[in-house]
Amino acid sequence: MADSPEQRAYAEELDAGDPLAPFRDRFELTDPHLIYLNGNSLGALPKATAKRIGQLVREEWGTALARSWEHWTALPRRAGDAVGVLLGAAPGQVVVGDSTTVNLYKLACAALGEFPGRNVIVTDDDNFPSDRYVLEGIAAKHGYELRMIRTDMNEGISAQAVREAVDSRTALVSLSHVSYRSGAIADMAGITRIAHDSGALILWDLCHSAGAVEAGLDAAGADLAVGCSYKYLDAGPGSPAFLYVAHALQDRLSQPIWGWFGQRDQFAMGPGYDPAPGIGQFLTGTPQIIGVASVEEGARLLAEAGVGRIREKGIRLTSYLVSLADAWLAPLGVSLASPRDPARRGSHVTLSHPQAQRIVQDLAKANVITDYRTPDRFRFGLAALTTRFTDVWDAIDRTRHILHDLSERDVAPPPATASA
Amino acid sequence: MADSPEQRAYAEELDAGDPLAPFRDRFELTDPHLIYLNGNSLGALPKATAKRIGQLVREEWGTALARSWEHWTALPRRAGDAVGVLLGAAPGQVVVGDSTTVNLYKLACAALGEFPGRNVIVTDDDNFPSDRYVLEGIAAKHGYELRMIRTDMNEGISAQAVREAVDSRTALVSLSHVSYRSGAIADMAGITRIAHDSGALILWDLCHSAGAVEAGLDAAGADLAVGCSYKYLDAGPGSPAFLYVAHALQDRLSQPIWGWFGQRDQFAMGPGYDPAPGIGQFLTGTPQIIGVASVEEGARLLAEAGVGRIREKGIRLTSYLVSLADAWLAPLGVSLASPRDPARRGSHVTLSHPQAQRIVQDLAKANVITDYRTPDRFRFGLAALTTRFTDVWDAIDRTRHILHDLSERDVAPPPATASA
User: Fold this and answer.
1) Which of A137, A256, A266 sits opposite B258 (nearest CB)?
2) Residues 6+ apart with CB under 8 A from B414
């Protein structure tokens, strides 16, 4: 047994005892030297997905051609149900299609249509930019007040802050479950209750939680949710997003983009729009089949591992990272920009340092992929199925060396100007 | 030389003299017995696209991972310019992303925002369902009058009918360039002028014309256009759509779905939406990279063949089909449901017969893929780069045999009920 968590052998032992370790082999991770801690931006490629895309392209598209639509039409709902398993959503409430941005727009408009007498949308000033922009656009074009909760960049949104922001004029509360910047988890059940107490509907963005933490949408009584599939759901660059509409609301709400995939009897090509019953009306145009199939593969792989085990390992990974950062990086001027309580933290850890952008560049040169976020943050995304404890150790070890180098350069005299 | 167009040898000679014939080898057409005349629904798979998807998945996603965003961000505009070449659109006016339905919604709302004093949207009652539904939704939710031009199902929309429909209350005219049902081509330049004379903007749907006929958007003075990429652009099932906004309108219009890919300085993650200059603001969420890359491949392949030559062969293919249908199918009760004038016809030919749906099923059994459209139509999509004149001959030959069989069955007594 290693004596201290600071020894690499300690991380090796954690990997050896990790029940999810075998899942790493289910991914194409071709560069053995790469430490990829950016799955919160783009998840790794599952081998099953590479195979499925190859088959879909050559056989279903190349050979069967348009005849494949006989089974493709069922995909957005089937992939939606597969994602629903990870979100705590019973079947028939999730579909896959469009982007997160477009889905946010559709569901926000649908929710607002319910409350002609209310004119306030509540979100927070540290919500992901696209979320804020979508709501800002709706507010600007349709005369809503967009009320921004001021949020602590490290600790995320509190139930208390939401309580103070909502009132009888609030139609919609739209927040992220896990903050893209800090990884802070919002109290979904508590905040949903607060929104409902004010008479508003709530729309959750699950981009940074789907496939990483337990969302428990049904149990929380959530109304609406959206999220992307290219992060922890491992469905590839720009793969289609999902949306969730609770059963009780599906036939009550009307979304604004009326398309032929949301039509009750699509191929009747009828004269008027007649929305499909249930979740179907929230589809719009022709779904991107390769992307939807990739979402289904990713969701199945995660379900096989189990959301409970994924969450458990996520907590252990982030906690290990925080402990090493405390020991090695804090003395070098780095501070934790994520909640310290693991129960309040998603699967990425954010640190802050004035030279964050430079650190991310130097880490990339040292084969550690992380990312920079304004103003002075760098994020380590830890994906339970691909990240090893030794990856965490190596990444923080290299970070401390980079910080040493940076501080040495800071005190060194500037290089002499080259003479001609 | 074959004596008559009705001899198969005649079709063989046409194929032998076809300058575009070598392009067929650029596609994965693995089943030598299949006659695929449904490229107007889903285009065939270019070999270059299969290769590019494989490379994108394994290398750009699987190996380079999120680092690939350094070059992926340029793709929607680059693929847009490649599509623009086919549409007669100068660079910087086309982007690839979202679905046709979502793009229609974005551009229709953007156009309507220009005319607070006008409240009429003009379309036609035979426009593609998703187009009608999108406009119906906008009209219903925002108090516009949706004025439907009654259109001849075979001959398509006339400039005269548009002239009679528009007036000083018209904000937007939205029509398809090539009718999905009949293949009739609308007079883009003439109708655009009529819309402009009334003070309205025009939004063209190019789904059935992009990659098949010359659109000439810039020359026609068109304002806005959208179209899908999975038909003649050969970019795969549900591949992303394109949209066109004429230079003069780009900074004047504001589209309704404000997303982070439409933001001027995307990764500043700034506090307010500040639309990117030019065509950029018409992007919304994260683009589906595999699909956008496939659009670029398809558009490049078509550009290599040349839109002029593609259009020329399209006319010859459809004219040949019409001549065989006249000779063999008209006596069996089939009538032409597309314009007879080849200049007014896109790249698909529609026939009508009371048993159209059955004919399509029987043709499929005979290895000829076409499709059925309400009420009594069957369509033959002829794609200049993959369809041979012999395919046309074989398809119409098999159709006449099927019709013979059907008419014989009609007069035969019903089969005796089996006794136990």
Assistant:
1) A137
2) none
